[in-house]
Amino acid sequence: MFQNKIIPLSYLGPIHLYAYIVNSHQITIEQHANYQRKTYTNRCNITGANGSMNLAVPVVNIKNEKVSLKETLISYDNDWQKQHWRSIVSAYNGSPFFEYYADDFAPFYEKNYKYLVDFNLKLLETFLESIELEVIISLSDTFIEFNNEPDDIRRIIHPKASPEDDKNYKTLEYRQVFSDKFPFTPNLSVIDLLFNKGPETYDILKASILTEEI
Predict the structure, then answer these.
(1) Alpha carbon distance 103, 81 (integer Å)
(2) Helix boundaries (H) for 13-135
(3) Per-residue pLDDT for the chain (214 aa), expressed as one digit of tens each?
(4) Which residues contact 162 (CB under 8 A, 6 or more apart)?
């Protein structure tokens, strides 16, 4: 069991990230870094009937100014909540455990959150509750410089980073909703795993990390 991991802020983050979370006693979310586009901060990937889909939470655009994650505001100029939930329902309505967990996640697409960090944090807490796991979660008080120590996994959890390059992680395949149409798609949003495998989600995430610290 890892004692503490420094992780990036994410919107329904990928399985690679959640494997580390499940194998940690405590996690610290870095919230003082500047917001960056095209990261897991405000986007996730799922697979629907027509293939891979990218869901992105729009943020308020401040012209060329650097804004910390803590201060990043969610934009409601368009009805992205309805679109995201419609896409999630379309993708997973036929999955074995969607109806079991849907009511836990649906409220996030009805209530407006001001800050992205609050929205993502509550989603993380809801997921952990759904698999009945307690992890101590803290938000950074100040910016945490990147380091190459095992406790900092921010560099390896990125859309441009390949999970296969992480020697401590292995991809475990499971049956996905559209497996009859598409080959297995690794490292989707953790909700893909949850809706497809339900109570087995914890075991799969736990077994995805190859090394443990005492």
Answers:
(1) 15
(2) 15-22, 80-92, 98-105, 116-130
(3) 677 999 999 999 999 999 999 999 999 999 999 999 899 999 999 999 999 999 999 999 876 678 999 999 999 999 999 999 999 999 999 999 999 999 999 999 999 999 999 999 999 999 999 999 999 999 999 999 988 888 999 999 999 999 999 999 999 999 999 999 999 999 999 999 999 999 999 999 999 999 755 3
(4) none
Burial class, 67, CB count within 10 angstroms (exposed 0-12 / middle 13-18 / buried 19+): middle
pTM score, two decimals?
Answer: 0.95
Q: Are 5 and 21 in contact (CB under 8 A)?
A: yes
User: Under the phi-then-psi rule, with left for phi > 0, alpha for psi from -120 to 50, and beta for the rest, what region is 147?
Assistant: beta
To which residue do tokens 């609050």 refer? 118
Alpha carbons 42 and 77: distance in angstroms, whole number: 16
Q: Which residue has the tokens 């100040």?
A: 142
The span from the first CA to the last CA of the chain, in angstroms, equals 6
* Residue 136: strand, helix, or coil: strand
